[in-house]
Amino acid sequence: MSLNLTEGVVHNEGCDLHYWHQGKGPLITFIPGGNGHGRQFFPIIAALSDRFTCVTFDRRQMSASQVTVPRRLSPPQQARDIRAVIQALGFDKSIVFGSSSGGIFAYQFAHDFPEMVDHLIAHEAPLIMLLPDASEIVEWFLHLMLVYETQGLDQAAAEFSERLLGYRDEGIPPVARPEPENPRNFWDHEFPVQLGYTPNLWRLRQNKTSIGVMRAVRCKDAFFARAATEQAKILDCPCFTVPGHHQGFENETEDFVPHFLGMLDTLEKKRVEEAS
């Protein structure tokens, strides 16, 4: 389908959350990561809205969803924002897809509101504390924070981007760039919290939440791709290797969508088998 979005705004805890939706059928909520903006999901919304109601949003303090006084990131508050968007559309539950730190917020949402999750797909959620080399990566993250404080945003972002594999592969289309204030908010208010924050995956497994994880083929052995594998081990859930890089759902959408639908089919079959 072509893109024909309807824009909405829902007020939650001091923030006007701007969201965009299209389609009919079961709800899929697409959760942005550190870049904060919902526009990255517009291509996949267009591809799926013939069979699903699809919604995405600008996260709190990002793009259109600004606040008067910026505050430090709260993953539980991010989960409540997701709930507010879903309820604004009149749904009681949703399939949730979170990419990068959006995957962390998807896990938090499932932890806090398990009854609202149909299926959860986490695409390269960077839960670094699960990795065998977590100590090394933590020290690298702390180094990046020091670089940001002493040398500025451009240098910190440049060093961070060196590990974002696949973006510079030959022939790969660019992705939508976030508004200039988004990276500043990420480094000021989000990166320090995300350094070691890990939702309670064991509780999600106990709750029997329907979860699948994805890692992107172009990311090779990047820390966020390897983290997906570790999540699958803990959650005992399907792990798909999917086309593209860390935002392959945006710029290699045609190749990505069959894997997305395949994951939903796998999760639905697993649910039926476990219920029988």
UniProtKB/TrEMBL annotation:
Domain AB hydrolase-1: 26-151
Entries under InterPro entries matching the protein: AB_hydrolase_1 (IPR000073), AB_hydrolase_fold (IPR029058), AB_hydrolase_sf (IPR050266)
GO MF annotations in UniProt: hydrolase activity
Pfam families: Abhydrolase_1 (PF00561)
Record carries keyword Transcription: no
Keywords tagged on the record: Hydrolase
GO cellular component: membrane
UniProt name for this protein: Alpha/Beta hydrolase protein
Source organism of this protein record: Cercophora newfieldiana
Lineage: Eukaryota, Fungi, Dikarya, Ascomycota, Pezizomycotina
